[in-house]
Write a structure and sequence with these properties.
This protein has two helices and eleven strands. It has an eleven-stranded antiparallel beta sheet with strand order 6-5-4-3-2-1-11-10-9-8-7. A hairpin with a 5-residue loop joins β5 and β6. The longest helix has 16 residues. The N terminus is likely disordered.
């Protein structure tokens, strides 16, 4: 195949949105994932995060559709609150507060509500494992802005969020692994109020 033709095919593939091009069984999996994520009334878990510098952090994870909070305990106290297009990270040790837009951050793909993996989102991969399911998504119009892989346990047709893996536009990788997941938890909305600063 000529290089120019290969490049054209790759670019046209990048412009594909949604998941209509997937096999029917995978489309069904994506619809199950959408329904699950939109139906969560409150999820809390312990997390371990591995960042781009190979460092490890630990803490508590809280999620409702459209909002996410990470309360870091190790290596030192920090809080991250994300939703409504923004991410705020407050380092309680230094007092530093960082504000980021989710517009070009792969985490933003998880924090739209309702979640729909079509339109401006492209499903790039659906994979099954032994009792597991994962979906990878990117921005349809600019997939180079990052990729997010959302991981679930899938036992007897019941999904449970167990992890997130991502790579941003600068090719920085991150991973969050959940344990002791509790679903249906009542979470007070003020928990997702960004820290001041």
């Amino acid at each position: 195949m000529k290089p120019a033709l290969l490049t054209l095919l790759l670019l046209s593939g990048c412009a594909t949105s949604g998941y209509g091009n997937l096999p029917q069984s995978e489309q069904s999996d994506v619809r199950r994932i959408e329904a699950y994520l939109n139906g969560i009334r409150g999820l809390q878990a312990a997390f371990v995060q591995r960042g781009p510098d190979a460092g490890q952090s630990e803490g508590r994870f809280s999620y409702i559709p459209g909002h996410l909070r990470l309360d870091y305990i190790v290596p030192h106290p920090m809080e991250l609150v994300a939703g409504e297009g923004h991410l705020v990270l407050a380092d309680q040790g230094t007092g530093a507060v960082t504000h980021l837009s989710l517009k070009h951050n792969p985490l933003g793909l998880l924090l739209k509500y309702p979640i729909r993996f079509d339109g401006d989102v492209q499903v790039t991969d659906v994979r099954h494992g032994n009792g597991s399911l994962q979906v990878s998504v990117a921005q349809a119009d600019n997939p180079s802005q990052g990729l997010l892989t959302i991981q679930f346990s899938d036992v007897n047709g019941q999904l449970s969020l167990i992890g997130l893996q991502g790579v941003d536009a600068r090719q920085h990788h991150f991973g969050v692994l959940l344990s002791d997941v509790r679903q249906g938890v009542m979470i007070v909305p003020s928990v997702f109020t960004p820290p001041a600063g």
